[in-house]
Each structure stands twice: as structure tokens, then as C-alpha cells.
């Protein structure tokens, strides 16, 4: 869903986090004060927190950097701009992944299309878990890409994507971020983000991969309270003295992600395997692996050359796993 032109203009004015009187807003947007009040109520109904103080006016609880398509394009390197067929920005959407999956089904030729959103109303992680997605404060991005091979050729793609995300974070001074197999981004044992790759197509190819990324840039306390695990955001990692631009971070992420997808083949994972092992934050950790109703406890021994999880079970045997949900064990 896209906001009306008046609602977008109102948001841009309020995005600085400062107070603006009703009269000032009405004059700048060209609406009556009553119409401004209705627009403000509409924003609040969509989860955007607004303070109203007599004699001062209205302001957002937290200043926002809204997504800017022209700015993001200007920050991309030439190679990425040439590879990217389409960049869409939605004010509100149920799920960036769901949108692109539907687009690929409707237009089989779809490739190199990126969908960004200010807010998701039904963002999802692995196993259908909800992804908390407040307005205008985090990264909600998906890329649709067509590959000539079948779905089995992309079995390690999510691991390569994880490497790309870590490299993008390092460019912006976010160090000590790690990867939790198969597709979570962690920082000091707390979740920073997640990757969701959904693949569809013929067994012999071609196929589509929709690569979704959710990354916590800033999470208000009330939003974080909805998350059922330890979490962290980039704002906490970098501290209040260093504010990272959402648009700049998105441009860097797109450059790194498209560099992976543009040339990815089954053999390409070998280029990322050593880096993935370097970023592995689970090596030597006691974990529980869940596969349906089955739970297996053990110690993570890393990944094999194909990207499968190596787990030393309590019997001492090392087994490899292609899928499953891994949780750190509290000892």
C-alpha cells in the first residue's frame, strides 16, 4: 500500500522529530487543521507514534530517515545499477517476500527486482514466525532473481547471502557480527537480523529465488518486547554518537547481495565457504537442532564443504544436516 501524497508530505515534515504546530502543518501541506488531525490519526492507526503537546504541536516519538529511491540509486555503484532491473519502495506491505513470490508467479521472466518497505504488516521468518516490522526504522528488503539451474542448485545460497550481509555491516563499522546456521545474523549472542530464501521452479531449471532480509537498525523498547529471543539493533551496537543512514546501509547491502546473486552457481559457494566459517558464531557451541517434532542435542562442529551443519551428538558421532532450526542451549 502506498500512502497518499498528503500523508507522505506530512511524514516527511514530521520525520525530523521536532515539534510542528497544526497551523504550520496545514499551511505547508495546503489542508485544513481538521484534515491534518485526521491524517495524524491515520498515521497513529498504522503504528506510527506521535506526541501532541499544547502550545508546541505534533512530533514523532523518534526521528525517521524515510527511504529515498533516488538517493539509494545515487549511492549504488555502476555495476549494481546495471544489474538491478527494478527497485520498488512500498510505504506499507504485508511481506516483501510474499509480494515478490507473487510477482514471480505472475511474471515468470521476473529477475533482479528489489522490493523495499517502510513497514511490514505480516513479515515472516523461518517456520512462519512473525518478523517484528515497525514503520520506518529497520531494513525490510527482498530481491527476486532467476537462476538457470533447478532449486537444488541453490541449496547453499542463503549461506552465501549471509556472508554478503556481514561484509556490508563491516563496511559500516559493525564488527563482531556473526552467522548462525543456516540464515541468522547475530552479534554477541543476540539476534540482529535474518535471511529467508524461498525457491520455486522446475527441478531442471529455471527457478526463482526470493531472498528476504530483515535487519534491526532501531527497535523501540515496546517493539522489542514482542520478540521472543535476545535481540540487538545497530543503534545499540554503534552507540548514539554514530547514526547510520538507512539509505546508505541499504545501498551497501544491495551491492553486496547482487554481487553474490549475479554470478551464483552451485560451484560458487566455495568462494564464500571460508568466510562463512570465519563468521560462524556457533562453532563449538552446545545447541539443540529441531526438525519437526524431533530434537537433537549436540555440539556444533561447523559446516561441511556443501554447507551442511556438522553436529557432534551426545553419542560422539558427527552427523550432517541440510535443514532444521538451531537454538543455543542454556547450560
UniProtKB/TrEMBL annotation:
Pfam family, one: BPL_C
EC numbers on record: 6.3.4.15
Catalytic class of the enzyme: ligase
GO cellular component: cytoplasm
GO molecular function, one term: DNA binding
Residues reported in the UniProt entry to bind biotin: 95-97, 120, 191
Residues making up the signal peptide according to the UniProt record: none
Keywords in alphabetical order: ATP-binding, Biotin, DNA-binding, Ligase, Nucleotide-binding, Repressor, Transcription, Transcription regulation
Residue ranges of the annotated DNA-binding region, renumbered to this chain: 22-41
InterPro entries per record: aa-tRNA-synth_II/BPL/LPL, ArsR-like_HTH, Bifunct_BirA, Biotin_CoA_COase_ligase, BPL_C, BPL_LPL_catalytic, HTH_11, Transcriptional_repressor_C
UniProt catalytic activity: biotin + L-lysyl-[protein] + ATP = N(6)-biotinyl-L-lysyl-[protein] + AMP + diphosphate + H(+)
Any GO BP: regulation of DNA-templated transcription
CDD domains tied to this protein: BPL, HTH_ARSR
Residue ranges of every copy of the BPL/LPL catalytic domain listed in the record: 70-265
Known role: Acts both as a biotin--[acetyl-CoA-carboxylase] ligase and a biotin-operon repressor. In the presence of ATP, BirA activates biotin to form the BirA-biotinyl-5'-adenylate (BirA-bio-5'-AMP or holoBirA) complex. HoloBirA can either transfer the biotinyl moiety to the biotin carboxyl carrier protein (BCCP) subunit of acetyl-CoA carboxylase, or bind to the biotin operator site and inhibit transcription of the operon.
PANTHER family: BIOTIN PROTEIN LIGASE, BIOTIN--PROTEIN LIGASE
UniProt xrefs under HAMAP family: Bifunct_BirA
Protein name (database record): Bifunctional ligase/repressor BirA
Organism: Methyloprofundus sedimenti
Amino acid at each position: 500500500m502506498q500512502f497518499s501524497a498528503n500523508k507522505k508530505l506530512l511524514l516527511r515534515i514530521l520525520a525530523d522529530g521536532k515539534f510542528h504546530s497544526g497551523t504550520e502543518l496545514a499551511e505547508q501541506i495546503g489542508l485544513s487543521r481538521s484534515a491534518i488531525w485526521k491524517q495524524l490519526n491515520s498515521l497513529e492507526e498504522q503504528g506510527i507514534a506521535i506526541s501532541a503537546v499544547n502550545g508546541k504541536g505534533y512530533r514523532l516519538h523518534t526521528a525517521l530517515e524515510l527511504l529515498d529511491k533516488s538517493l539509494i540509486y545515487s549511492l549504488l555503484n555502476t555495476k549494481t545499477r546495471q544489474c538491478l532491473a527494478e527497485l520498488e519502495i512500498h510505504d506499507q506491505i504485508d511481506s516483501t517476500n510474499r509480494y515478490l513470490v507473487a510477482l514471480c508467479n505472475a511474471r515468470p521472466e521476473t529477475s533482479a527486482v528489489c522490493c523495499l518497505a517502510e513497514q511490514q504488516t505480516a513479515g515472516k521468518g523461518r517456520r512462519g514466525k512473525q518478523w517484528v516490522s515497525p514503520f520506518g526504522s529497520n531494513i525490510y528488503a527482498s530481491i527476486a532473481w532467476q537462476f538457470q539451474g533447478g532449486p537444488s542448485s541453490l541449496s547453499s545460497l542463503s549461506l552465501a547471502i549471509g556472508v554478503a550481509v556481514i561484509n556490508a555491516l563491516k563496511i559500516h563499522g559493525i564488527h563482531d557480527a556473526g552467522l548462525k546456521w543456516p540464515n541468522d545474523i547475530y552479534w554477541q549472542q543476540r539476534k540482529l537480523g535474518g535471511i529467508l530464501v524461498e525457491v520455486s521452479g522446475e527441478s531442471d531449471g529455471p527457478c526463482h529465488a526470493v531472498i528476504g532480509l530483515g535487519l534491526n537498525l532501531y527497535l523501540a523498547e515496546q517493539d522489542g518486547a514482542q520478540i521472543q529471543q535476545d535481540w540487538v539493533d545497530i543503534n545499540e551496537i554503534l552507540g548514539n554518537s554514530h547514526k547510520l543512514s538507512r539509505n546508505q546501509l541499504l545501498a551497501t547491502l544491495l551491492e553486496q547481495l547482487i554481487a553474490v546473486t549475479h554470478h551464483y552457481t552451485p560451484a560458487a559457494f566455495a568462494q564464500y565457504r571460508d568466510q562463512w566459517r570465519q563468521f560462524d558464531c556457533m562453532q563449538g557451541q552446545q545447541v539443540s537442532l529441531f526438525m519437526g517434532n524431533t530434537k537433537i542435542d549436540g555440539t556444533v562442529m561447523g559446516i561441511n564443504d556443501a554447507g551442511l551443519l556438522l553436529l557432534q551428538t551426545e553419542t560422539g558421532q558427527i552427523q550432517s544436516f541440510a535443514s532444521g532450526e538451531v537454538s543455543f542451549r542454556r547450560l
